[in-house]
Structure formats: structure tokens, C-alpha cells
Amino acid sequence: MPVKNNTFKYIVRLENLQLNYGKVEALKNINFEVQKNEIVGLIGDNGAGKSSLIKVITGIEKPSSGKLYVRDKPISFKGHSVKKVHELGIETVYQTSSLGEKQALWRNFFVGRQIRNRLGFIDVKREKAIAQKMLLEKIGFRGVGITVDSPISELSGGERQGVAIGRAMYFDADLIILDEPTVALSLKEVAKVLNFVKGIKASGRACIFIEHNMSHVYDVCDRFVILDRGEVVNTFDKNEISFNQLNDYLLHLSTDKSERAAMA
Predict the structure, then answer these.
(1) Residue pair 166/139 in contact by the 8 Å Cβ criterion
(2) Residue (of 193, 167, 191) closest to 180 by Cα position
(3) Measuring CA to CA, which residue among 30, 64, 61, 20 is closest to residue 227?
(4) SS3 at position 90
(5) Which pTM does this prediction carry?
(6) What is the pLDDT of residue 263?
(7) Phi and psi, residue 226, nearest 5°
(8) Contact status, residue 254 vs residue 212, Cβ threshold 8 Å
(9) What digits encode the pLDDT tens for the residues 85-142?
């Protein structure tokens, strides 16, 4: 893994980014950044461009034009890939969990990136020890009901998100992207996930938090970036806008968009 530069301001910065699908402009002149130890709420209706933006950052899509910087260093889009992004210290936790339901928790921790001994076999003892340490120190699972041998199917939705976030933290991610992590969870489970998000910041890491529930976004985020039809239309620091003001702004934005569509 490349040696990280620790004297940076921005973990990720996009400059004049454009993503086209044929004649369709999915992203238009995007300027977006995440500072270290910052939680950024990425807000927008369905089709606003959130998924396209994340796909570029995570190496799934290559943009039509623009620049990408990681830790203030320019990154070439030639060879840009999910694997390369992992090596740069960026991890993503999707709303549809990639965890193996029937597999034990410790196996899920290292799926695709197993630790092997000198003979090339998976080092089960070491993987279990690391998973156990992460459970206690990073994720905070201290009850007797959950162990490293627990199948993922026995965990609640919030606990599964905790495992996925803990896995990202173990692999030394400076930036963790959370895509709708509280979808279909109970209030109790939502509280768990929001605490996990706060733990990301407490650990010195940064996070892009994508969520439709504005109370969740406002609770954990330091800054809000609003996307609309593929463009960044506004950015607010938390200390300059109240929860009600943010809601009102988004309501007016949605109303204006509906009126423009009606007149088109």
C-alpha cells in the first residue's frame, strides 16, 4: 500500500468534473471536497447525481473531464479502479450490504483481502484476533450475544452496518463513504448507526454521508453539499444554517424544480 501523505488539507477534491453518458450530462462542472476529519452530508433528490459522483470517487466510473486529488495529490484517471481507490484509503459502505449472510463475522471482515501465512493459507487465528479487537475497540460490540463466530444473519441491520464500518476503519481508510446506511432500520438501530458515524470522526477519519432523512444528516454532519440535476447548487457549514433553515431551503429547491418541469 502506498505511503500516505499526512500533511494534506483535503482527503478528496474534485475540480471541474464532468461525467457524460452519451448526450446526457450526469455531472456538470462539479467542484467538491472533503477535508480530513470532516463529515460531509451529500444531499439531493433521486437523480440529483449523488450516485454518479460517488462512482467517480470510488473508481467505478471514469469522468469525461476534470481532475481528482487525493490528499492534495493529483490522481490520474488512467487505471482508476475500485482496487486503486482502496489502496488510496477510501472505502464505501453501501445501503445494500455486501456482507455474506451465512458467513461468520470474522470471515466478512477480511472478504477479498484475507491475511495469509507464509505457506499461503488463510491465517484464521490472526484474522479472528483482529476481528475481536475491532469488535471491542472500534465497533463497541460488548454484549455476550455477538462474537467473531456469529453468522451475519444473526446480526441486526444496525449491527451489520457497524461491521461494515469497522471493516473500513481496519483497512486504514481516511475516507469512508456511507450510502443510505439507515434505510429500513428501526429508531433504535438508526441510533446505533449514527453513533458509528460519530465514531468515524472521533477516530480522526472523514466521511461522506448520503442520506434522505435530514434529521440524521443534520445530527452527524459538519457540512452539507446539495446536488440538483448533476450540479452542486449550494454548500452550507453546519454553524451557518439551522435544521429548519436547511429543510426550508431543500423544500424551496424541490418546489422550484417542480415548477420548472411543469413549464418545460
Answers:
(1) yes
(2) 193
(3) 30
(4) strand
(5) 0.85
(6) 45
(7) -105, 125
(8) no
(9) 989 999 988 765 567 778 888 888 887 778 898 888 888 899 888 888 877 776 666 5
By the 8 A CB rule, do 229 and 256 touch? no
Containing H/E element for 35? strand 24-35
Task: Give the chain's count of helices (H) and strands (E).
Answer: 8, 10
Contact by Cβ (8 Å): 242, 210: no
The three cell numbers of residue 24 are: 446526457
For residues 70 and 32, the answer to whether their CB atoms sit within 8 Å is: no
**C-alpha grid cell for residue 200?**
468515524
All 3 cell numbers of residue 124? 484464521
d(CA 214, CA 217): 5
Amino acid (one-letter) located at 18:
Q
pLDDT band at 1, cuts 50/70/90?
very low
Give the model confidence (pLDDT) of 142-161 as tens digits.
Answer: 555 778 888 888 888 888 88
Counting beta carbons within 10 angstroms of the beta carbon of residue 94, is it exposed (0 to 12), middle (13 to 18) or buried (19 or more)?
Answer: middle
